[in-house]
């Protein structure tokens, strides 16, 4: 099958469903081409070796990638962020029609919702049916993160999304909660498939090296790995660390691996509260993430207390399960249900510092065998439901259904 992947983000940017997906599809005998932008996420600056041009073709790991221009940006300015989204949407729509090869099916990665513009444009002019993969529920995400507050604008975006969902041929979502919300908004349930995400590939070390995280050999270490933005509300985790310090739980620490727009604020909060039980680690290559996950005793997922996040499953969950470590889940809804179904950790309400401190203490008091059992349960659940082979096979079925309609 000939597959066109349309995604604003692609390697060398972090991506789950562009180059990684393309490689797996090619292993299964499919021909794949990617239409994307020039790499600038998450820092908002072009990656070294790239310059914005009208069009650029490159081949990475035998996958053909077509890049079209965009305005590089990923800061806290809603206007600049929207310019980034719209610039790619229109260049992909206008240039992509002429640059992409004929395909049997087009896989479209959403967010941003503006990706629907080139998806519909290419679908119409090149007659390529669309499988539309919704990873963010717009406009809900914009409201939850505070990126857009104008009610009229949010209403217009809602109408736009409904229009796109009505045109595309098939929709895939990352959770049953997402599917239920779309159905409540008038999308045909028979048109929607639930396909869990898989993690970015990483390698786990054969031997645990606790020296990767300062004091991890002496303290029960709970690691958060990933983007530190508004949606993660990690200031509440530092509040939990302050409670642990006040209660004398000196054997527990939180470690943060990565970067994001809130990193400086979090570092300032650490200094202000004099938290010697909080460690910040710089962003590392994805290939090195496994060594840090393995060095921790438990892994943390945290999001804002918002109804949207209760129907999502944060993508880091899959990586944590693959690492075979107990998970401290502070999200609610579908994500908590996955932890409980798998027997892979403990849950607490999001943005509740006291509950998180209590959950951290609970984990730290478990025996080595109990912690190991949680990790084994996580890995078993991953192998059965979250591994990339399983997810790609489900997408193949969705592609076949779309093409044969």
Number of helices: 14
Coarse morphology? globular
- What is the second-level CATH architecture of the largest domain? 3-Layer(aba) Sandwich
The averaged pLDDT comes out at 93
- Give the helix proportion (percent range): 40-55%
Number of domains: 2
Q: Which sequence of SSEs, written as H and E, runs from N to C? A: EHEEEHEHEHHEHEEHEHEHEHEHEHHH
Over the alpha carbons, how many angstroms does the gyration radius reach?
A: 21 Å
Main sheet: strand order: 3-4-2-1-5-6-7-8
CATH hierarchy class name of the largest domain: Alpha Beta
Give me the CATH fold name of the largest domain: Rossmann fold
Low-confidence stretches: none
User: Gap between N and C termini, in Å?
Assistant: 15 Å
Going by CATH, what is the homologous superfamily of the largest domain? Glycogen Phosphorylase B
Describe the protein.
By secondary structure, this protein is α/β, with parallel strands linked by helices. The chain folds into 2 domains: 2-198 and 387-403, Rossmann fold; 210-386, Rossmann fold (3-Layer(aba) Sandwich). It is built from 14 helices and 14 strands. The protein is globular, with a radius of gyration of 21 Å.
Key descriptive features of the protein:
alpha/beta, Rossmann fold, 405 residues, 14 helices, single chain, eight-stranded mixed sheet
């Amino acid at each position: 099958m000939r597959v066109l992947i349309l995604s604003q983000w692609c390697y060398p940017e972090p991506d789950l469903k562009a180059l990684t997906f393309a490689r797996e599809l090619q292993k299964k005998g499919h021909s794949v081409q990617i239409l994307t932008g020039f790499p600038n996420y998450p820092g908002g600056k072009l990656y070294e070796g790239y310059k914005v041009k009208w069009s650029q073709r490159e081949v990475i790991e035998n996958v053909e990638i077509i890049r079209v221009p965009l305005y590089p940006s990923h800061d806290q300015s809603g206007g600049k962020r929207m310019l980034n989204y719209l610039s790619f949407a229109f260049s992909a729509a206008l240039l992509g029609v002429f640059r992409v090869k004929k395909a049997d099916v087009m896989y479209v990665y959403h967010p941003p919702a503006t990706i629907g513009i080139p998806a519909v444009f290419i679908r119409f002019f090149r007659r390529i049916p669309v499988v539309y993969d919704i990873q963010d529920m717009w406009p809900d995400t914009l409201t939850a993160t505070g990126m857009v507050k104008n009610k009229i604008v949010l209403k217009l975006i809602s109408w736009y999304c409904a229009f796109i969902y009505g045109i595309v041929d098939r929709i895939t979502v990352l959770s049953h909660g997402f599917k239920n919300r779309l159905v409540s908004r008038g999308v045909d349930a028979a048109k929607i498939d639930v396909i869990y995400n898989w993690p970015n590939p990483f390698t786990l070390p054969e031997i645990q090296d606790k020296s990767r995280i300062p004091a991890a050999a002496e303290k029960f270490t709970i690691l958060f790995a990933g983007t530190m933005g508004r949606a993660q509300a990690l200031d509440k985790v530092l509040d939990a660390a302050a409670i642990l310090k006040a209660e004398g739980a000196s054997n527990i620490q939180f470690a943060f691996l990565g970067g994001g727009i809130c990193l400086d604020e979090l570092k300032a909060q650490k200094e202000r509260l004099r938290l010697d039980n909080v460690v910040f680690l710089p962003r590392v290559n994805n290939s090195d993430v496994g060594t840090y996950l393995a060095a921790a005793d438990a892994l943390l997922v945290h999001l804002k207390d918002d109804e949207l996040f209760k129907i999502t499953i944060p993508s880091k969950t899959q990586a944590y399960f693959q690492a075979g470590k107990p998970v401290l889940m502070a999200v609610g809804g579908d994500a908590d249900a996955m932890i409980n179904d798998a027997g892979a950790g403990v849950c607490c309400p999001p943005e509740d510092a006291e509950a998180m401190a209590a959950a951290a203490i609970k984990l730290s008091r478990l025996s080595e065998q109990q912690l190991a059992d949680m990790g084994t349960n996580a890995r078993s659940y991953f192998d059965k439901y979250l591994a990339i082979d399983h997810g790609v096979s489900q997408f193949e079925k969705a592609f076949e259904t779309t093409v044969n309609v």
